Amino acid sequence: MLSETETQVVMNAPPIQSAFHGKLRTRRNWLAAVIIFLAVAGVLVSGILWRVRAHATVSAETAAMAVPLVNVVSPQRTAPSHDLVLPGNVEPYMTAPIYSRTNGYLKKWYVDIGGRVKKGQLLAEIDTPEVDQQLQQSRSNLATAEANLKLAEITKTRYQGLLQTNAVAQQDVDNAVGTYNANQATVGAMKANVKQLETLQSFEKIYAPFDGIVTVRNVDVGDLINSGSAPGTRTDLFHIAQPGKLRVYVYVPQEYSQAATPGLTAELTLDEFPGRRFQGKLVRTANAINNATRTLQAEVDVDNPTGKLLSGSYAEVHLRLPGLASTHLLPVDTLLFRSEGLQVAVVQDGKVALTKVTPGHDFGNQIEVLSGLNGDESVIQNPPDSVVAGQQVQIAKAAPPTGAGGGQ
């Protein structure tokens, strides 16, 4: 234990140790404040950096979403071919609707549909009571005019004889001659009228104009028949077609018009004759391009001696055209119809390039492209109408190659 003197000395000593402890506490306070400040600053900086990174990510995603995704397809090259397949309409070589040339009622018909007729064969008879009555009246008028003419001739001869003896005046002779001439003209007019009515009466009988088959019969016994030359509704009595030789009309695209010349070999295929081909020949063309369709009308003649091919049928015509080169096929949904012409949208280095193409044969879901493509392009399917050259796009996937079109 310390003595009282020592205790007093210690208590009266300077406070060195207390000052040391005070400074230590001050340093600790400053250190804590710095740590807190750094922690707050770190939180703020971390939040700012997170927001910057999030904004950059959103901007990148927005920019990526702004670039549209497109599906593309590659053109398929077709092998060179000399066989151009076109739709054709089979028509009879000769066909005619049969009208009446007089008014009346159908008295009787002799040939029904499907019946074979010869030229000049009687088809039907028409009852024409009005024409018969007019003819009878005209003949009576002609008889009256001939009687007047005979009397005028006698008078003229008598007056001319009396003029020799100066028994009559010249004026009376001239009057007699004038009366004779007038009656003569009247007789001529009456004869012409009788002849016209006789001709109309002869139209009571309807005859076949050529050998053929009756394909249509539109009237029956008792039907009112109007003359084919009369105004208003006209009804054709029969249709006659000559099926021994057929005309097949095809429309050749303008691109092939120079190769479609008369004399080329053609073949017909029809669904009702699977595996069979009927031989024909291109005999003539219109020698003019249709402004609406840009096609050349051509006629192919096909012999049909057995009558198996029916007129009005649909057929596919295979034309052997020389010099046809290989082409490309594209789906029709790749085409852009604009005022600049037919175009397709091609992806080049991530951007759209509009290419003008020349169409060929249309196969329905595909179309033939004659020029404008090399075959290695990536063509956009279903391009929007708003697509423009230079627009950035992303290719979603490449569509499989298109199948070959019909007939190629």
Fold and architecture overview:
Helices cover about 30% and strands about 35% of the residues. A six-stranded antiparallel beta barrel has the order 3-10-13-12-11-14. Strands 2-15-20-19 form a four-stranded antiparallel beta sheet, with no helix packed on it. The chain has helices at about 5-10, 15-65, 130-165, 170-200, and strands at about 70-75, 75, 85-100, 105-110, 115, 120-125, 205, 210-215, 225, 240-255, 265-270, 280-290, 295-305, 315-320, 330, 335-340, 340-350, 350-355, 360, 365-370, 380, 395-400. Residues about 5-10 and about 400-408 have low confidence and may be disordered. A hairpin with a 5-residue loop joins strand 12 and strand 13. By secondary structure, the chain is α+β, with helices and mostly antiparallel strands. Helix 3 (about 130-165) runs antiparallel to helix 4 (about 170-200). The chain has four helices and 22 strands. The relative contact order is 0.16.
Entry keywords:
4 helices, alpha+beta, 34% strand, six-stranded antiparallel β-barrel, disordered C terminus, 408 residues
How would you sum up this structure in a few lines?
It is built from 4 helices and 22 strands.
String of helices and strands: HHEEEEEEHHEEEEEEEEEEEEEEEE
Low-confidence stretches: 5-11, 401-408
Number of continuous helical runs: 4
Mean pLDDT across residues: 82
The helicity comes to 25-40%
Instruction: Give the neighbour order of strands across the main sheet.
Output: 3-10-13-12-11-14
Q: Please give the number of β-strands.
A: 22
- Helix-strand category: alpha+beta
Gyration radius, rounded: 52 Å
This entry's quaternary arrangement is: single chain
Biggest sheet layout: 6 strands, antiparallel, barrel
Shape: elongated
Span of the ends, CA to CA: 125 Å
Estimate the strand proportion: 25-35%
